[in-house]
Design brief:
This protein has 270 residues and is an all-alpha fold. Helix 7 packs antiparallel against helix 8. The chain is globular.
Length: 270
């Protein structure tokens, strides 16, 4: 019975991976198509990648995308880590439960709703010109809950005796934070940064609402180009972005793996 269940699970996973990755592979293959459409593969070429690299407008949007993703991930990681530390200090209190619930609500709120809320905020309540700063602010805002949820478990896993020992030795609050707490949750902070960076890099719905004044990101630009007709340059660009996302995912995986190994070594030494 267990073997049959295991086989069905593996078959289910295989089918799901085929459904998810077959369109991606189809897109990647036709990014090398010498023809002008995706109806028939007529020959191998790198012209579409050359077109992407030589398109200055597109390169500007790519730079914008990575700039926003990097800055928003950095800011969200700092703010989210501080938020996680604050929530952790409230352990067992009603305020902690309230803050966690509010954080979780932001995680499950649809991106379209978040984008509409920020559009109302920036255009009516805070009359700001839509552009780089509004996009950056929105990306920081929706990345903070992700950071909190990824850093908080590391704080719970941290040995509280380390903090107590540092206090007994006369360490100041800053020394405890910088020498004990942050090194203990360092892997969680790095993982949170990677996740926030990935979310910002791939975001379309929120960015679509708050961008303007000539500033745009690659997701919004791809959407506008696809509406005018599918071009194999989009295939080439999507392939490059997929490779970047895959690299980030692999980096996150190896960070998790190295941390698991370290924990295993510490457990073996004990």
């Amino acid at each position: 019975m267990l073997n049959q269940t295991s086989k069905l699970s593996k078959l289910y996973l295989f089918v799901m991976f085929v459904i998810l990755y077959l369109p991606i592979m189809y897109l990647i293959i036709f990014s090398f198509n010498a023809g002008g459409d995706m109806s028939e593969f007529t020959g191998f070429t790198l012209d579409h990648y050359v077109s992407v690299i030589s398109d200055k407008r597109l390169l500007t949007f790519i730079i914008n995308t990575f700039l926003v993703a990097l800055l928003s991930a950095l800011l969200a990681t700092v703010i989210g880590t501080m938020g996680a530390l604050t929530i952790h200090q409230m352990r067992g209190s009603r305020q902690q439960s309230t803050l966690l619930n509010l954080n979780n609500i932001l995680m499950v709120t649809p991106d379209v709703m978040i984008g509409a809320i920020f559009l109302i905020l920036f255009s009516s309540l805070l009359p700001l010109q839509l552009g780089f700063w509004t996009v950056l602010s929105a990306h920081v805002a929706f990345s903070i809950p992700i950071v909190v949820l990824m850093v908080l478990p590391r704080l719970y896993e941290m040995n509280p005796n380390l903090v107590t020992a540092a206090q007994d030795l006369g360490a100041s609050d800053w020394q405890i934070l910088s020498k004990v707490v942050l090194p203990s949750i360092g892997q969680g902070i790095i993982s949170a940064f990677f996740m926030a960076f990935t979310y910002s890099l791939d975001d379309f719905a929120v960015t679509f609402f708050v961008t303007g004044n000539g500033f745009s990101t690659i997701s919004v630009e791809v959407y506008s180009r696809v509406r005018r007709g599918i071009s194999l340059e989009i295939n080439a660009l999507s392939t490059l972005m997929f490779l970047v996302s895959l690299s980030l995912a692999l980096g996150y995986y190896y960070l998790q793996r190295s941390e698991a190994r370290r924990k295993g070594m510490r457990g073996g030494q004990r």
